[in-house]
Amino acid sequence: MTLNFILGWHIIYSLIVLFITGLFLLWAMRKLRVTKDVRLDSVKHMDVSEAVETDASDEDIESITKRRAISSIEARFDIIRRVFVPGILLIAAFLIFIPLLPKVSASYVTMLVGIITVLVGIAAKPVIENAVSGVVLTLSQPIKANDTVIIDGHYGTIEKITLLYTVLKVWNFRRFIIPNHKLMQKEYENLSQTDEVEWAHVEFYVAPNSDLEVVKSIAKKSMQCKYLANSEAPSFWVLELKPDSIVCWVAGWANNPAEAWALKSTTRRRLASSLTKAGIKSQMTSNHVEYSKVPANKGKL
């Protein structure tokens, strides 16, 4: 083969690689743009229900949450674009350079590849792992901004997902920063991916000589608040009769995990106050309730 033929063939090969690379980049960027638009459109219709109740108005909470979600989505796709395009161009450059490898000394190629591999492996491994995991989380969406989740026992709301890490806002407004590659390896509960309503129950203990009809009436009234869904009235159960206590449950439905949490909190507060006013000895966490062994009178001790 003449030198001119080799150079001509390599130029044609390079043009083909660049053409295919250009088409792939156009398709990929369009796909990313469409996916981004879908994510942004979903923010407009998402149910804003944080895992932490605040005194702010619903309008403020909705505005702040949606703004954060939009910012998180835009940041993630911007980073993906910045990483993706140079990565594809580097691959294209490598493919163009492949035909020239026989012309280069094998020892130099081996040494160069070894040095690059070691440097990339040591310095960029955490970044690459997190970046790849961030892309997977963005495209597969097992969790998304504003989801209520339980991760490693931490109950809270996903505040944002970047390419490298995810921010979890817990009930006391602290933030947990979780690297994306670790999040991909964890088992977590996404409370936002449930049915249309959320089950909420409160377990409590009353003295064994309590009037259960009175307890039942107080328990069901205690759950009647703004967080209770209209789908079904509260239910009351006696779970167990023990020598030193009666184990009771009161349960109802809430519209989402955040309201279920608030419903349980409100019920406990009202239940403790109402039972005390009725003279019924009760506790929320202990199975032993101290009481006076005088015959009960309408549930009062």
How are the SSEs placed, and which strands pair?
Elements: H1 3-44, H2 58-97, H3 106-123, H4 125-140, E1 148-151, E2 154-161, E3 165-170, E4 175-179, H5 180-183, E5 188-190, E6 198-206, H6 212-222, E7 235-241, E8 246-254, H7 257-277, E9 282-283
Antiparallel strand pairs: 1-2, 1-5, 2-3, 3-4, 6-8, 6-9, 7-8
Helix pairs in contact: 1-2, 2-4, 6-7
Quick description:
The protein contains seven helices and nine strands, in the order ααααββββαββαββαβ. The C terminus is likely disordered.
Describe this structure in words.
With 301 residues, the chain is an alpha+beta fold. The protein has two domains: 3-140, no CATH class; 198-283, 2-Layer Sandwich (Alpha-Beta Plaits). Helices cover 50% and strands 18% of the residues. It contains seven helices and nine strands. It has helices at 3-44, 58-97, 106-123, 125-140, 180-183, 212-222, 257-277; strands at residues 148-151, 154-161, 165-170, 175-179, 188-190, 198-206, 235-241, 246-254, 282-283. The strands form two sheets. The chain has a five-stranded antiparallel beta sheet. A hairpin with a 3-residue loop joins strand 2 and strand 3. Helix 2 (58-97) crosses helix 4 (125-140). The radius of gyration is 30 Å and the shape is elongated. The N and C termini lie far apart (107 Å).
